[in-house]
Predict the 3D structure of the following.
Amino acid sequence: MYVPPLFAEDRPEVLAALMGAHPLATLVSLGPQGLTANLIPFLHDTNGGILRAHLARANRQLDDLREMQETGRQVLVLFQGAQAYVSPSWYATKAETGKVVPTWNYLAVEIRGVPRVIDDPAWLRAQVGALTDRHEAPQQTPWSVGDAPPPFVAAQLRGIVGVEIPVAHVTGKWKASQNRSLPDRQGVIAGLAAQDNPMAGIVPGA
């Protein structure tokens, strides 16, 4: 990922927060048939630095992941947070010189690591349970995997395969108008706030 120094973000807690808030990431692998990408919800173990997920057993990307595990090649996982189109009309510089163009602000985290394919029912039950608990927590009456009949759960688990990706390299990019003047940034904040876009609270206003 191209990251100019001004947009680089390397604070572990900030990167982990984005991955936690936006867990549906793009898993990119390279195999004999070329590139493959799938959207997969991940759990990030911040203590061990590991991403955990599961794929449908019928997903052919698993062939790539097994081959990459054997050869030690890395997959790419892309998390994306808030994003927004930035209109040049919001810049104070537009009225001063007219020398402005549109751009796009966004937050992204890129993870690289060698995948491990896991076909263990106990591991899968734990992963599915943890993923479910994480996203059911805000519900008024949280559902848990244990609410379903055990034979049904066991049958569902037979249809998936687990994946662990130890984080070998992480890159964060926070493109939030840091390259603009304070008056321009304040204009961007006002423009985004009028659209109720969460990027309004991320662009530095002072």
User: Anything to note?
Assistant: The first strand starts at residue 8 and ends at 9. The domain at 5-200 is CATH 2.30.110.10 (Pnp Oxidase; Chain A). Residues 42 and 60 are 18 Å apart (CA to CA).
